[in-house]
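Team,

Forwarding the record for the chain on the shared tracking sheet. I've put the sequence and predicted structure together so nobody has to dig through attachments.
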Amino acid sequence: MIGRGAREPGRHRDGRPYTTVHRRLWDGPARAEAERLGQAWPAWLVLYSLGRRSFYAIATWPAPAPLMVTDDTAEGLEERMHDVETAFTWSDLPLVRPTVSPPQSRRGGTVPQASAAAPYHLRHPYRRAA
């Protein structure tokens, strides 16, 4: 094969098993800090982005629009989370879930729940009547 040497497959270096290859943990302290923030703030989902090298927090409580804050440091993210929690007004949320009206029939009345759930046909539409 082109580009293949005489090495054994599955080895990084000749004579060394795969398990001795050093595994790098990218941004381990930052990930640990994000996990600590997630435990300290249970109403938030805290993430760390390796690509952007920044912290993100997404609110897990019901809100009219998704709430997300970001910062480059864990301390800055914590301040932003605190600011959002103090500025959020619970009066924007509906207190009662809207009720669902029963289905209407074509004639204007309500449909009985048994027929609305599972309509029952006596004849198959493609079979001839005997």
